[in-house]
């Protein structure tokens, strides 16, 4: 088991995490673990893009990469606007 650590955040964020965890019947730690596990790093995104292009029979070029980056930006913008 990992050693517990602290994360500094605002009271508002802490309070929101507490409510979200309570609503899900879990702890803030478990909620954060779930969030961290559900998000891809840039390297993971790149690897998935390469694999997806290969499965589609597409050569993974700079143009394909830029299109993928644009798509991720649109996804993040949509997520941010939905959260607001």
From TrEMBL:
Superkingdom of origin: Bacteria
Organism: Streptomyces thioluteus
Entry protein name: Ribbon-helix-helix domain-containing protein
